[in-house]
Amino acid sequence: MAAETHSTNPATMDTRQNDVIIEVRDANVSFSMDRGESRVLRDANLTVQRGEVLGVVGESGSGKSMLASAMLNAVVHPGQVDGEVIYHPQNGDPVDILSLSDKELAKLRWNEISFVIQAAQSAFNPTMTVGAHFEETLRAHGEDRDAGMAHARELLSDLYLEPDRVLGSHPHELSGGMKQRALIALSLVLKPEVLVMDEPTAALDLLMQRSIIGMLEDLQEKYDLTMVFVTHDMPLVTDLADRIGVMYAFEMIEIGSTDNVLDNPSHPYTRALLNAVPNISDRDMEIRGIEGRSPDPVNIPKGCTFNPRCPLATKECEVNDPDFRDIENDHEVACFHWERAREDIPLVARGDDSHSEPSTDGNGSFGGL
Amino acid sequence: MGLAGSETVHAVSDVSLDIYENDVVALVGESGCGKTTLGKTAIGVQRPTRGTVSYRGQDIWETKEESSGWFNRGGSDGEYSETDIRKALQIIHQDPGSALNSNYVVESILSDPLKRWNPDMSEADRRERIYGFLEYVGMAPAEDYAERYPHQLSGGEQQRIALIRALLMNPDLILGDEAISALDVSLRVEMMDLLLELQDQFNTSYLFISHNLANAKYLTQRAGGRIGIMYLGELVEIGTPEQIIHNPQHPYTKVLLWATSDVHNRGEGVTTPPVRSLDIPEATDPPSGCRFHTRCPEARETCRNTKPALKDHDGDSRRTACFRGEDQHEYWQSTPLEEESTVPQQPAQSD
């Protein structure tokens, strides 16, 4: 039941807290450009717990896609990745994904950590059927074809697709929503532990987007998956994510449980971003944008990267880059003035204007269909 | 498949919509619902295959035909010339970068329409007008921005230039086709606020095309406007944002609300979508009767055969195209279509 992922009892919660599956340590990505060095991911440090869904939210150019690529050592040439991404398998020794050989990496991807990108259209070879993609993936990894295809059929059904029809179709015969779901099934066919998704629903219609979120909740539950879901769409990920990380200017600036980050946001940027996004439940429509622009990766402000746009910035913010600090259980923020932020940047448009619940069966999980 | 076999797609079918002075209407629907076609038809860019589009009571396409005839170079018989109508109805596109000519600086881009439509204006007056606008939309110093090429502007700045170019015509109606969806999240509110401020200032009406109900609500609620919900080329419900968001009547409007995530209303997981099928039928072959009947959770036999008219059921000016609005309709005696196409497992051709 999808509903239960959010109401896990405290005991299981605690064991999960200590069961790290991915650890990102001081990860940096840079590109050399004529104008100078472009730093598109800066000092990323985070841990992903086994079995959780981490939502990574940021505007375009915030570095969120780079973080996803770095986690899989998939940064495109000529980008340079430094730091460590430690993967802790269920059984076996930890491995640093960033120091694996290409061959080791090929084995790890799909088997342990899978990646779903935004452009499902281009991920499929147009001359091959969808079924051939599954078979080739199984063959390349030396898996048993029959068992593998049986699992593929189950995954396609989990995603509300007809296995026979989809496996026998060429990519162009499927709609965008069907292709994206088929790609998610493909990424899971070798039973990975972790699924990293970069804007997996961005090109789809609203109904399909939210339906896929519901399906991912059910998949996560059924296969005990760990998920990292990267998006620019904050409202979209809030139902799925157990924790949310917010990125600004190529850095993570706040991370914590979904409730902490959304109900008690403590970085001035997170608060401003929440104030800038209209919700249909808004009663008070006094929302407002954020003054200024995100910085150029070649020319990042000294000190806190948000200081030129921040209403609370002081001299200290112009000189020193604030480290992450724990401000409560499962809530870290990189801001010197987080206490003032909570007081001085009120959250506008907090909704008590809830619309009538249009769902037909109340609260059933998506799988009730 | 060859050209000869190309089918006629009725992107928009039997839609009636009045846009008043100083009005704001947002059309919302999924891709392929015909909202862009309806918008372009409303501003006279796309000709309807059937039906009429009138500007202040005067048929736009009759006017265009009359003024293009070589025998009638004096323009139409109507009160408004084709030129008047073209000036009155403007558009801003989704992608401001490609809508602006990259070879010209901002001042040239903005001078061009003034020269064309206001040839008597002196260069000094033109410049003053353009600079005034640039400063008004927050692009100061104006003389600096006036010398920039489009690629030297951010997406938000490009969209402002496109907006100024439209406003320089003193239009009565501006069509905004997904005008803010290409902008970064933190810039969208600013652009929406600017649009509303200018509407107030210049008494312009807007027709917004959007796939985002939260933005449509923001724009229409502040301006006292209406939201129209489109499905497969038809307008299925139109009303005030309060009516549409807080008291939706059409089952498809309820689907769009279900699909809209809300930071403040986080549930215990995503519930079952209130549809019988996730995928949208082909626009080339829309279902009979009510076009939504193949997916509608409330559909009954009647819906398969009969098309519901868009009408005001409660005397509150909201119009809905659904039999459920009528207490006495035969729909209520008709057999539910319940189990017949319990889809997700069997999706239709396409979305």
UniProtKB/TrEMBL annotation, chain A:
GO biological process, one term: peptide transport
Keyword ATP-binding: yes
One function term, GO molecular function aspect: ATP hydrolysis activity
Basic and acidic residues biased stretches: 349-358
Region span, Disordered: 349-369
ABC transporter domain residues: 24-274
SMART domains per record: AAA
Protein name: Multidrug ABC transporter ATP-binding protein
Lineage: Archaea, Methanobacteriati, Methanobacteriota, Stenosarchaea group, Halobacteria
PROSITE patterns: ABC_TRANSPORTER_1, ABC_TRANSPORTER_2
Record key words, sorted: ATP-binding, Nucleotide-binding, Transport
Pfam families xrefs: ABC_tran, oligo_HPY
